[in-house]
Amino acid sequence: MSRDCLLLNGNGKPVSFFPLSVINWKTAVKLLLARNVILIKVHDDQYVRSPSISIELPSILMLKRFHKFHNYVKFSRSNVFLRDMYTCLPKSKNGLTNWENVVTSCKSFNSAKGSSLQKPIREPFKPSFSHLLNGHKIDENTFPDSEWAKYIF
């Protein structure tokens, strides 16, 4: 069973969708002990023990303060994969590393193409936040706790 914890913003929504704001159990316990979060739900029958204290492992935490969420899409490798839906596309052209020039490519295709220029299947573009959100499927069956779906969808 996973010991991950869903971190919610002060308004009850996930802090981030890309990637989903999931933190490990150690970070969750530190936030809880520092009193920076409100405990919403704990994992059933899972504890962290020390000689002087026993703490139930948190499953859902909410920040006490609201952190402003930016609606722009940062250029990153993971966001390029989200934009291209994890499909193999050849690199567009030589030059700058930006939204209009980078596409995903599987290792075998990239090796075979070498340094030759290939026309991509789809022209690369700078995605909007809603484009990434609509194209990204979150499977609630993979959540460590079924209660997470109430806060994500």
What's the helix and strand layout?
Layout: E1 5-8, E2 22-23, H1 25-33, E3 37-49, E4 54-63, H2 77-83, H3 107-113, H4 129-135, H5 148-152
Parallel strand pairs: 1-4
Antiparallel strand pairs: 1-2, 3-4
Short key terms for the protein model shown above:
single chain; 153 residues; alpha+beta; 2 domains; 4-stranded mixed β-sheet; 4 strands; elongated
Largest sheet at a glance?
A: 4 strands, mixed
* Overall number of strands: 4
How many structural domains can be distinguished in the coordinates?
2
Percentage of residues in DSSP E strands: 15-25%
Net shape: elongated
The strands making up the biggest β-sheet line up spatially as 2-1-4-3
The average pLDDT value, as a whole number, equals: 78
N-C termini distance:
22 Å
Tally of helical runs: 5
Rg (C-alpha, Å): 20 Å
Oligomeric composition of the shown chains: single chain
Task: Enumerate the spans where pLDDT stays under 50 for 5 or more consecutive residues.
Answer: none
Structure classification: alpha+beta
Helix percentage: 10-25%
Strand and helix order: EEHEEHHHH
What would you say this structure looks like, in words?
The protein is α+β, with helices and mostly antiparallel strands. The chain has two domains: 5-70 and 137-152, no CATH class; 74-127, no CATH class. The chain has five helices and four strands; from the N terminus they run E-E-H-E-E-H-H-H-H. The chain has a four-stranded mixed sheet with strand order 2-1-4-3, covered by helices on one side. Strand 3 (37-49) and strand 4 form a beta hairpin. The protein is elongated.
